[in-house]
């Protein structure tokens, strides 16, 4: 067992294990990019263009940051379903160690948990989002609450390069995202879930129906762009710089500053007039 009580080899709440996990997963799913690289420079460029390593970097960062910073991070999102998150102790978890690994709904990019709340983060740079993904997340949240006691408040947050509605599949966007707030429009899909189900998800939906209804009744949705996330961390850096010198300050500035630089290199932070 490790210091968090997790079995050896399980991803769990460990920044080291998450680093290995994301490298292995990226190689497994994107091995064609590794095989096509003719030089280390080509390989490096391919990795920097990929979403998976960025997801891994954010996961590790959230594992290392104090819970107070993570609470502020979640509260920088536009939130539908509650006003804000209260101060909590947050942990990073890999969903496969918590539930049956054969559950083939969807794999969250990041799972943040407190004693009362389970928050999935779906991270997008170039790829679009589709309603089927949204439904799979609802099913996974419902299944997780069904097999774990006590259940936790379900939250689903999106981090996207474009505004949430513009990151959505074009045909679905034109059909469902017609109001002034894409997050509000997304929340309305909760009431149409049954009629939007693809045939392959009908059986698990019926099996989980009571848990799904409970999940939909409690669901909290959130959205932020990568640029907004970057600006949040820039503000955190400014706050740290005003603090007295300490080991904590030095470490936090390195952690957050390097992540901000990564977002800038990927051109994910939109420059403002103040930059």
UniProtKB/TrEMBL annotation:
| Lineage per the UniProt record | Bacteria, Bacillati, Chloroflexota, Chloroflexia, Candidatus Chloroheliales
Write the protein's name.
Answer: Restriction endonuclease
């Amino acid at each position: 067992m490790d210091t968090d009580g997790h079995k050896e080899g399980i991803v769990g709440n460990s920044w080291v294990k998450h680093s290995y996990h994301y490298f292995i997963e990226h190689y497994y799913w994107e091995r064609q990019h590794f095989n096509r690289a003719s030089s280390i420079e080509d390989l490096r460029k391919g990795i920097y263009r990929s979403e998976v390593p960025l997801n891994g970097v954010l996961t590790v960062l959230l594992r290392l940051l104090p819970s107070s910073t993570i609470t502020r991070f979640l509260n920088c999102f536009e939130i539908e379903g509650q006003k804000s998150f209260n101060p909590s102790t947050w942990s990073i978890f890999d969903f496969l160690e918590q539930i049956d690994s054969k559950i083939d709904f969807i794999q969250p990019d990041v799972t943040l948990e407190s004693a009362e709340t389970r928050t999935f983060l779906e991270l997008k740079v170039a790829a679009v989002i589709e309603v089927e993904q949204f439904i799979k997340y609802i099913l996974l949240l419902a299944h997780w609450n069904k097999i774990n006691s006590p259940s936790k408040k379900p939250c689903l947050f999106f981090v996207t390069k474009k505004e949430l509605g513009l990151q959505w599949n074009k045909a679905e966007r034109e059909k469902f995202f017609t109001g002034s707030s894409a997050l509000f429009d997304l929340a309305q899909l909760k009431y149409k879930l049954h009629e939007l189900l693809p045939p392959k998800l009908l059986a698990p939906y019926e099996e989980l129906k009571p848990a799904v209804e409970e999940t939909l009744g409690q669901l909290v949705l959130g959205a932020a762009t990568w640029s907004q996330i970057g600006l949040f961390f820039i503000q955190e850096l400014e706050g740290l710089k005003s603090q007295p010198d300490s080991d904590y300050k030095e470490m936090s500035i390195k952690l957050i500053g390097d992540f901000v630089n990564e977002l800038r290199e990927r051109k994910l932070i939109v420059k403002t007039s103040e930059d």
